[in-house]
Amino acid sequence: MGFQIVKDIIDILLVAILLYETYKLLKKSGAASVFVGVFAFILVWFLVSRVFEMQLLGGLFDKVINVGAIALIVIFQDEIRMFFSRIGDNWRMFDMFKQLSKKVRAKSKQQEADQSVVQIVLACKNMSRTKTGALIVFTRKQDLQQYAVSGERIDAMINSRLIENIFFKNSPLHDGALLIVGGRLHSAACILPISKKQNIPKQFGLRHRAALGIAEKTDAIAVVVSEETGKISYVIGDEVKTGVKPEELEQMLSEQWYDYCHAN
User: What gap in Å lies between CA 135 and CA 6, rounded to an integer?
Assistant: First the structure.
């Protein structure tokens, strides 16, 4: 019973809104008086046929109503066209809103990725100054789950202080690599494959060799902070660059890793 009352109220409100919008549309086109006349005729027809149940007069009005529906389409054809045009315009506005919403979300992700890069560069800069050894691996298209399971799961937002604490010499997680997946700190103390190349520079330690190893087997980016010299290096595929400045590291990550921050 209660549901029926609510349904009736909604029905009445929808009809009222439809009539009001129709009146506004016809008022702009100068046909408001015709609308009032039609509405008055429909009201009289409803009273005669449905309320008072006058069969003769009601039957006559029924015939007029049946023919009148077609007549109304002819009379108000311009207004009807305008009405459906407005519906189409509103739909296009809704579609524009969806496109705008997508752009806002994309911009939000972009800002988040930019902030992540800044936090990583800041951590590397601080560790470089204190000569804290570090190995950070950035996942791109290829899955590194087989290496992630060898370490400890973190699943945390990228934060410079957290990265520095992970690689602090007395931290239980400072050995091994830190994996960053989908713009988040995924796992720490991960064991990576060591490169077996013979032409590796002698000054490269175990972290550099692990960076070369993961870059050989996957499309990941590896960033190394040397414990001996404090220099920052990165490896992408066959490309190895040492003595990287924080500004260069930021530019590289923005160009090479940026698009993959939210891919996983």
Answer: 64
